[in-house]
Structures are given as C-alpha cells and as structure tokens.
Hints:
The protein is α/β, with parallel strands linked by helices. The strands form six sheets. It has a five-stranded mixed sheet, with helices on both faces. A five-stranded mixed sheet has the order 16-13-19-17-18. Helix 1 crosses helix 2, helix 5 crosses helix 6 and helix 8 packs parallel to helix 10.
Amino acid sequence: MTDCPTPVVAVIVVAAGSGTRLGRSHPKAFVHLGGSTLLEHALRAVFALSEPVQVIVVAPEDRVSEARAIAADAAAASAALGHAAPAETVEVVAGGATRQESVRYGLAVLRDGVEIVLVHDAARALTPPALFERVVGAVRDTGVGVIPGLPVVDTIKRVDVSGGILGTVDRSELSAVQTPQGFPRNLLVAAHDSLADEATDDAALVAAAGHRVHVVTGDARAFKITTPHDLERAELVLGVRNPAPAVVLPRVGTGLDVHAFDDESELWLAGLFWPGERGLSGHSDGDVAVHAVCDALLGAAGLGDVGGVFGTSDSRFAGAHGDVFLEETLRLVTAAGFGVGNVSLQIIGNRPRFAPRRAEAEALLASILRAPVNIAATTTDALGFTGRGEGIAASATALLVPLVLAAPSLAEPPVLSLDV
C-alpha cells in the first residue's frame, strides 16, 4: 500500500439525525437517494478533495457497522473515479444524544497533525467538493472560523407572540448558513470543552467562546434534505427523477384518543373551555378531540403520533391547551410539504352536551388549521366506559394535500463577505 501524507485537515460528517420530518423511521443519513444513501453521497464529495483528509463519520450507535460499510463503498467509488480515497483515514464513531455531543465524540478521535477541522451534515448530501475547498482555503487565509452562507432573498419580519408585525429586518445583514463549517482545530476543540450549553451549530459555539467567525459564499446545492420535498428536489438535481412535475397524492390519516374524567381538572374539549363540567386527566389539558386531530394529521404526513412529538416528558406541554398542539402540528405538517384539506372529528361520550357549541368549536379549529372542520358527537347508548360516564373518546380523520413548490434555482449566488 502506498504511504499517504499525514492529513492536516479533518472532516467530521455528522450522520446521527433522525428521519422524522422526512417521513422515515430510520435516520435520514441512511435514506436512499438515486441508489445510494445520503451519507454515501456526502462522503464522495469529501473523498474528491485535492488533499488527503482524515474522515470521521459520527453515526447512531446501532448503525456504526452500517456506516462503516457505507464509508468503504464511498471510498471505493471515489477511487474508481481516480480520486484519492484512502480507506485507512476513515473512522466511524457512535454519536450522542445531541448534535453537539456527537461532534464532540468526533473531535475526540482527531489525529495528531490535524490543524483544520470541518464539520459537515450528511443531510447536505449534494454539497460539491469546491465548497469544502473554499472553506479550507478561507480558514488557512484568515486563521478564524469560516462558514458558507447564501443571501436571504425573502423579506423577513419580526413578529410578536400573537403574530403582530413588529418590524422588518434588514436582510442585507442576514445569511442563511450551511455546512461544512471550518475552524482551526484549537479553537473548535476549546469551544466544545469550555461551553456546555447547546448551540444551534458549531459557529455559534465558537462565537460564544469569543472568537470571530467569517462567512464565505455558499452553494445552492448544499441545501439540507429535511422534508420529502427536499428529497424530491435532490432527485431532480441528480437527474434520477423525471423532470416533469411529480404527482404527489393526497394523504389520509386517522387518530383516536381517550381520557378518563378527573374531578380535579377543568374540561377543555375541541379547543373550548366548558365551565361546570368534569375535566379530563392528562399531561396537558386532556383535550381528547384536539389530540385525535393531531394524531390524524401527523399520521397522514408520516410524522409519528402525539405521544412521540409531544411526549409527557416535555415540560413545555404540561397543562398546554389545544391551540398549542394544533399550531405546532400544522407547522410540522407544512414543513413536510402538506396543507390540510379537511378534518372530520367525532366525539363520543355522555357529557358535555355538545350540540349547542358545535358551530363555535368548528369555527375555532378551522381558524387554526386553515381548513374546514366538521364535528359530530354521539353516545354509546350506555355501553362501554363512555356509556358508563367514565370518560370521553374522540376519533378523527384528516386529509392532507401536497403543497405545490417550484424547484429553487441552482444559479451561483453572489459573493458574500459577512461577519457573524
């Protein structure tokens, strides 16, 4: 085997993120795109660099062996194209509970001689080698942290908690940052060692430690694959999908929730407060109707269920009312590329008498979901736990329709030079 120069650059590829918003049950770095995983696509760009690098893949603990095999395949594919891809410079380590912890585990296996460290998200699978080279060169030239970014083209508003506009943000001062993010090794390691608070990215961590971070021109192809529409966009970029508009069919989901009565609680049902009625038990306000609707919406979008998204261990939702759950569910569904077509909800129980407030509840839920909502209420003729007056049940069916999104332009962006 030919001896390779000792790498002075290391690239940590973080591949431990979940695939929830992508609608998958496994980590998104292991989702396939054009016959290869996102991780393999990301590694091929790293192996195509003009200088040898130490490659560190941080993978979920139960997928370390799979990640090692993917890295070997990526190295072999790059070697077949004439790129230097020495397999002995690839290391795979298990990640942690957070991205920051995963990066720290990657830093722990840096080799002697490494002077520059790049941290890259495997989900930015189509990032070209030229962007890696640009970041490495800028770190060498400046001696500070360097991150790629693109101009923000949308008008940005500051809003208050009720949605009121507080003002317009000067977008000339904004940059939508990407990875790989590069740093002198000593700065990045020291920042991770000294700061325990979670940061949104490594640039924020290094900046919080008092160091300057510089922004250079990013690349449109370095977009993050997070939702099903992102994956479709990536397929179009690779040419593995027919460039004609893809047909994304509507989706239907169902939800069911049950809560027992609790005499110590107030009753919240279908988003409304019911004075004088027995309340329902639960971590939040126990609104079975809203929870059933959320389950139906999340299920249709392939995003799991209420228990997984709004777990009882999350203190943010302790005592929260239905509007909080519905608004967050709508945000997740929209981010996954869908809008709500309509919702049909049925409430099952002896009390409260629902008919007098049916129109009020339908109007409230429809205003939050921005879609028609139909509510029916029934009893079980004294059968079962609802018939015995022990609690209330609710079932919901939701229709989601795909949002029509145009593929963004891949034109080269203007040069940026901003400090963050």
